[in-house]
Specification:
The complex is a heterodimer.
Chain A: H1 3-41
Chain B: H1 12-18, H2 21-37, H3 44-68, H4 70-74, H5 91-112, H6 115-136, H7 143-151, H8 153-163, H9 168-191, H10 204-207, H11 210-233, H12 239-261, H13 271-298
Classes of the chains: A mainly alpha, B mainly alpha.
């Protein structure tokens, strides 16, 4: 693997990790909001 | 060692492209309209969750569709650059991503909203990914009619997310999109040169010819006229929807008439077909917007 390819690898993996982190944080917030909504509704 | 042996890992954009984001805009809109038009109320957070789950489920089904059709997509110009045929992603990754999205959307819908809407969401994903994509699309020239069924689920799911039960009204919303899809798609198929024939997908214009396609466009638009008025007739909506449906659907029939009876000549510009296709998109948005306006302004209508 050339250094350029290694860089491309790293960039792609980093982008995916950030995207996944954002999705997970989003789910945490969503589940918190759902829980509050459910408690308030009953 | 060659670079081909170590492919670059797929970027997040490729995963996003697997969900067919442009199809999703219509899914989100009709799902939201079903939710807003339903009698009763839903907590805004849960309503948001319901629409999100409908979108995630549609994205999962889209990813599974592209996993299965990677070979077909590779053979067509329009789809050859998608992540899988473009060689930017491994096939099993698309499959696992599609399954993960589908399962999580159904589970969240069930836990946060209700299990009936979750069950219908699961049914719609299986319907699109298995019944349509794997089973019937490669086998029948009526494949678009069957595919339309998949696109018709969102307003039904949105409605059931609020009410928790299935009545005639949400089924009619399903029927409207179901009947709308064939003339919408076949109008496009008449003026866009597709290479479906090359990859063995039996699209109606290719298999049964142009004349039969035109006849069916007209026939479906007449059925659409009747189906779109049904919610008003049964008393499920008020005057706002009723008048909007009469005007919008009559115009749909008027634009379908020239498409239905004419034959295209050499170097045909296909103006009537393009006009009908453009209008069909506007039609669906306007009709569902009228449905929501009717509910919000008049607030009347039966829950049945």
């Amino acid at each position: 693997m050339t250094p350029e390819e290694q860089d491309a690898h790293k960039r792609a993996r980093r982008g995916r990790n950030i995207a996944l982190a954002l999705v997970l944080v989003g789910f945490v917030v969503l589940f918190y909001a759902i829980t509050i909504a459910k408690i308030g509704g009953s | 060692m060659t670079s081909a042996a170590t492919p670059v890992p797929a970027e997040w954009r490729d995963f996003f492209a697997l969900t067919k984001p442009r199809v999703m805009s219509l899914v989100v809109f009709t799902g939201l309209c079903g939710l807003l038009a339903a009698p009763g109320s839903i907590h805004p957070v849960l309503g948001f969750t319901a629409v999100l789950c409908i979108a995630l489920g549609a994205g999962g089904a889209g990813a599974l569709n592209q996993w299965w059709e990677a070979d077909i997509d590779a053979g067509m110009k329009r789809t050859a650059k998608r992540p899988l045929p473009g060689g930017r992603m491994e096939r099993t990754n698309a499959r696992d991503f599609g399954i993960a999205l589908s399962v999580s959307s159904v589970l969240v819908m069930g836990l946060a909203v209700n299990w009936l809407s979750a069950a219908i969401l699961a049914l719609s994903i299986v319907y699109y990914a298995v019944v349509y994509t794997i089973w019937l699309k490669p086998r029948t020239p009526q494949n678009i009619v069957i595919g339309g069924g998949a696109g018709a689920f969102p307003p039904l799911i949105g409605w059931v997310a609020v009410t928790g039960d299935i009545t005639l009204m949400p089924v009619l919303l399903f029927a409207i999109i179901f009947v709308w899809t064939p003339p919408h798609f076949w109008a496009l198929a008449l003026f866009v040169q597709t290479d479906y024939a090359k990859v063995g997908i039996p699209m109606l214009p290719v298999v049964k010819g142009e004349a039969a396609t035109r006849r069916q466009i007209l026939a479906y638009s007449l059925v659409l006229f009747l189906v779109s008025l049904a919610p008003w007739w049964i008393g499920g909506t008020g005057m706002i929807y009723g008048i909007a449906a009469v005007v919008l659907s009559a115009l749909f029939v008027v634009l379908s008439l020239p498409v239905g009876v004419r034959r295209s000549g050499e170097d045909d510009r296909m103006k009537p077909e393009k006009r009908l296709f453009g209008y069909s998109v506007l039609y669906l948005f306007a009709l569902f917007a009228a449905l929501v306006a009717d509910r919000l302004i008049l607030g009347q209508g039966l829950s049945s």
